[in-house]
Specification:
With 246 residues, the chain is mainly β. It folds into 2 domains: 98 residues, Ribosomal Protein L25, Chain P; 80 residues, RNA Polymerase Alpha Subunit, Chain A, domain 2 (Beta Complex), CATH 2.170.120.20. The strands form 3 sheets. Strands 1-3-2-6-5-4 form a 6-stranded mixed β-barrel. Strands 10-7-9-12 form a 4-stranded mixed beta sheet, with no helix packed on it. Strand 2 and strand 3 form a beta hairpin.
Length: 246
C-alpha cells in the first residue's frame, strides 16, 4: 500500500525514571509523561510537550491522526504512531499522561470515528424527531485509511424510517465493527398520551335509597311497620302472639 497520507510530527525524549513523583516533576517542568508502545518492540517511557501534542492532533481525525516521532534516539526516530489514550485533569482538562501506539501502513488497526448527519429529514416536517443512538462507530482498517468521519444524508427519511449500521457508506478497505442491525439514526413519531379521568356522578337530592340499601351516614334507619325506630341500646318491643279462642 502506498503511504500517501497526512502525517504530523511530534518531538519526544526518552526518560529513564518512572513513577508518580517523576510524573509530577515533569508536569511542573511543562512536560507530559508518556509511553510509546511498539507493535514489534518493547514499550518505552518518554516525555513530550503539551503544546506540540495539541498541534499534532489539530486535524479532522483528532486522536486518529498519524504522527511521526522526532527523537534523538535512533530506536524511536521516524516511528509512526497514533494516540491510544489521553488522561486529562478532571477540572483543568490539562494533559496528565499520553499513550502512543505504533502503527504500520500495511497492518489493520481499530478506531472509533464520528457519524455526522446532513440534510433536513422529511419526517421532521410531520412532527417526527431525529434521534441518533450511535454517534460513534468502531471500524477496522489500515491506519492510513481511517476516515475523519462518516457522513450520512438523512433528507429522505420519513416517519418511522431509520438507517442501520450495515447501511453506512464506508470507504474501500474499511470494515465496520458491531451488529449490522444496530440503529444509527431514526425518525421517531411524537408520543400521544391520552389521559382520562372517570368521576362518579352524585345522586339527586331527595332520591329514595334503593331497596335494601343502607342509610346514608348520619341518617336514620326507616322504622319497621310504620313505627318508630327503637332508641340506641334498647330492644324493639316484642309482639304478643294472638290468643286462641276457646
Amino acid at each position: 500500500m502506498e503511504a500517501n497520507y497526512d502525517v504530523r510530527e511530534l518531538k519526544v525524549e526518552l526518560r529513564k525514571d518512572t513513577g508518580k513523583s517523576v510524573a509530577r516533576k515533569l508536569r511542573r517542568q511543562g512536560r507530559i509523561p508518556a509511553v510509546f508502545y511498539g507493535t514489534r518492540h518493547d514499550s518505552v517511557a518518554v516525555a513530550l510537550s503539551p503544546q506540540e501534542m495539541v498541534e499534532a492532533l489539530n486535524t479532522p481525525k483528532l486522536k486518529n491522526t498519524l504522527i511521526k516521532i522526532k527523537s534523538g534516539d535512533a530506536e524511536l526516530e521516524g516511528r509512526t504512531v497514533m494516540v491510544k489514550e489521553i488522561q486529562r485533569h478532571p477540572i483543568t482538562r490539562e494533559f496528565l499522561h499520553v499513550d502512543l501506539i505504533e502503527v504500520y501502513p500495511d497492518l489493520p488497526v481499530k478506531a472509533s470515528i464520528p457519524v455526522i448527519t446532513k440534510g433536513h429529514p422529511k419526517g421532521v416536517d410531520f412532527g417526527g424527531t431525529l434521534e441518533q443512538p450511535l454517534r460513534y462507530v468502531d471500524i477496522e482498517c489500515p491506519a492510513p485509511l481511517i476516515p475523519a468521519s462518516i457522513i450520512i444524508d438523512v433528507t429522505e427519511l420519513g416517519m418511522g424510517d431509520n438507517i442501520r449500521l450495515g447501511q453506512l457508506p464506508v470507504p474501500e478497505g474499511v470494515k465496520l465493527q458491531g451488529d449490522p442491525q444496530s440503529t444509527v439514526v431514526s425518525i421517531v413519531a411524537p408520543k400521544m398520551v391520552a389521559e382520562t379521568t372517570a368521576e362518579a356522578a352524585p345522586g339527586e337530592e331527595g332520591a329514595a335509597p334503593a331497596e335494601g340499601a343502607a342509610p346514608a351516614e348520619g341518617g336514620k334507619a326507616p322504622a319497621a311497620d310504620g313505627g318508630k325506630a327503637p332508641a340506641a341500646g334498647k330492644e324493639a318491643p316484642k309482639k304478643e302472639a294472638p290468643k286462641k279462642e276457646k
